[in-house]
Description:
Blueprint: E1 2-5, H1 7-10, E2 34-37, H2 38-52, H3 56-69, H4 74-86, H5 90-103, H6 108-120, H7 137-149, H8 153-161, H9 167-184, H10 202-215, H11 219-232, H12 237-249, H13 253-263, H14 271-287, H15 291-300
Antiparallel strand pairs: 1-2
Helix pairs in contact: 2-3, 3-4, 4-5, 4-6, 5-6, 6-7, 7-8, 7-9, 8-9, 10-11, 10-12, 11-12, 12-13, 12-14, 13-14, 14-15
Amino acid sequence: xxxxxxxxxxxxxxxxxxxxxxxxxxxxxxxxxxxxxxxxxxxxxxxxxxxxxxxxxxxxxxxxxxxxxxxxxxxxxxxxxxxxxxxxxxxxxxxxxxxxxxxxxxxxxxxxxxxxxxxxxxxxxxxxxxxxxxxxxxxxxxxxxxxxxxxxxxxxxxxxxxxxxxxxxxxxxxxxxxxxxxxxxxxxxxxxxxxxxxxxxxxxxxxxxxxxxxxxxxxxxxxxxxxxxxxxxxxxxxxxxxxxxxxxxxxxxxxxxxxxxxxxxxxxxxxxxxxxxxxxxxxxxxxxxxxxxxxxxxxxxxxxx
Length: 305
């Protein structure tokens, strides 16, 4: 029996790693109303369950069964890459990760997954030159952001130099310089808060709109607004939070976890926003039945904010 199925609702059981959506690809990464058989769904859910309890061999076999049922699914390739990686089977993980990135070269998470796999082997993304579209401008943006997240500022700056004088390169370049200054500064002085944005500032306008949509629980509209805002301002932590909250509200919980945990990498001296992210992560992990992670994030919340 087949039925209409929101595939990212299934992804609600994934245990993602971090990112923020820095700069989402222009087309939505979501796949709506694809048709999957009950057999596929049951196998997929069981694979996710086995992966979550670190039974990687069984999870891999189940994901491979899903692959037989849907040969063209880059989502299954992505999960196979992640699971092989967790099981430290790096060669298999790398091949599936390359396949996902070739399917969607502008997807941040696909690239981040591949970078993690390559670096675990002591290599670099340049070793795959010829197999990947490394000249793609969006891929370069994603790669610079990944290195920024990892605090590998020299590597990030090297990528930015290849990008020329773009708005993205200039903005991330300033963030890198700021991070390096904070790292090297031997002072206990409290960081100076940035001036409050003016009312006509597009960032503050977007924040106000997102706050309104969060208040009315209009997660569909919030997702769209946050996604568009991130295209223009990929380094704004609040926009990552709002995007993750929208996904969580729509029960796209796995993607929400990935976005929200990544949002923390773009957070600078904002405990109030950190609390919001922790609360949302606790809700997300509660949804997938991971009470230990849910409690871990609740315990991170600072009172009185």
